[in-house]
Design goal:
By secondary structure, the chain is an alpha+beta fold. 26% of the residues lie in helices and 44% in strands. The protein has helices at residues 30-46, 60-68; strands spanning 3-11, 14-21, 50-56, 72-81, 86-95. The protein has a 5-stranded mixed β-sheet with strand order 1-2-3-5-4, covered by helices on one side. The chain is globular. The N and C termini lie far apart (30 Å).
């Protein structure tokens, strides 16, 4: 296993896409490929109408993955990061349909 992609916080046909990959797997397209498959499942099989996602401000590579997946920037907020154990600035994104 090199990482995980999931959709959580599902309510009222909306959910939050998240992903984490081991550092050794970065830069190989795995995040895009796995997230795209999960997005298709979320929209087509589960019937979600919107996905949200975010990344730490100091992780622009994750933002590039979200942009390539078709997500649109929403805003930047301060929030607590459990993995880091500290507050971070998080850029948030939204997607309302699969890109063509």
């Amino acid at each position: 296993m090199v990482g995980v992609v999931d959709v959580d916080g599902i309510a009222e046909r909306e959910g939050a896409l998240g992903y984490w990959l081991d550092r050794a797997a970065w830069g190989r397209g795995y995040a895009f490929e796995a997230a795209h498959a999960v997005m298709r499942f979320a929209f087509e099989d589960v019937g979600l109408s919107q996905l949200r996602a975010g990344h730490a401000h100091d992780n622009p590579a994750s933002g590039r993955v979200l942009a390539r997946l078709g997500f649109s920037p929403l805003d930047t907020v301060q929030r607590f990061s459990r993995p880091r154990g500290e507050n971070i600035m998080q850029r948030r994104y939204v997607l309302t349909s699969l890109p063509a």
